[in-house]
Hints:
- The protein has 300 residues and is α/β, with parallel strands linked by helices.
- Helices cover 20% and strands 40% of the residues.
- The protein starts with 10 loop residues before the first strand and ends in an 8-residue tail after the last helix.
- The model has no long low-confidence stretch (mean pLDDT 92).
Amino acid sequence: xxxxxxxxxxxxxxxxxxxxxxxxxxxxxxxxxxxxxxxxxxxxxxxxxxxxxxxxxxxxxxxxxxxxxxxxxxxxxxxxxxxxxxxxxxxxxxxxxxxxxxxxxxxxxxxxxxxxxxxxxxxxxxxxxxxxxxxxxxxxxxxxxxxxxxxxxxxxxxxxxxxxxxxxxxxxxxxxxxxxxxxxxxxxxxxxxxxxxxxxxxxxxxxxxxxxxxxxxxxxxxxxxxxxxxxxxxxxxxxxxxxxxxxxxxxxxxxxxxxxxxxxxxxxxxxxxxxxxxxxxxxxxxxxxxxxxxxxxxxx
Length: 300
């Protein structure tokens, strides 16, 4: 058995996409590797409960934040987004092992785990910080006061969209009180640089490098062809007011709130928290784009 390089971390949390077929065996292999590297290992509570793994302590998100100094996430980008949003406030670095399809932020392939993971744990990694969105839904009352009825964080995007059976939604968008436009469309996306290569890209928006301090605002199937995506600084507050349309909904990454009312306002600003990702040494963003978006196909 080969000797693993010395580890710079003390206690690792394991988080898995527990619905995935065969995930328990993969989690057990990674846990054994971590133990060999000298780490204490715990499982996130839902991962432990749904896989039946009982050889390691099960910790809540808060307990992971208090006790662990690194989190290893097995799954796709959706799994990573869900746990990263919750752990960001604890400033814990995350390592992603990809069991999904694209894997923009879960970038270690299963076949490379045995070689790549020990090197990262020994300190041979590229560290990257990603901005997060912080948003709220404000509802006006008869006296004119606004009540906050929903608050959450997002790493990719905040989306206001039309109801499932209704026609277009009309929204009014502002930045720090400065009017941008009224959009009659299927919806409006406010995406971070991380989210610019997700839903916003599918809707025709540009890709933003993660180091940029900006958001991209992208209409979804706009009724007005001149309503184009716009990149704005991330220093202000974006406000999206529901003007017309039935059963409009709002999504913060995968968390949703249905049946927004006319006059409801969705506010989006930069969060004080950032997400820390640890990538294999030599990782770079452009190589990820080439590989995941197949930009290098046909190149000799």
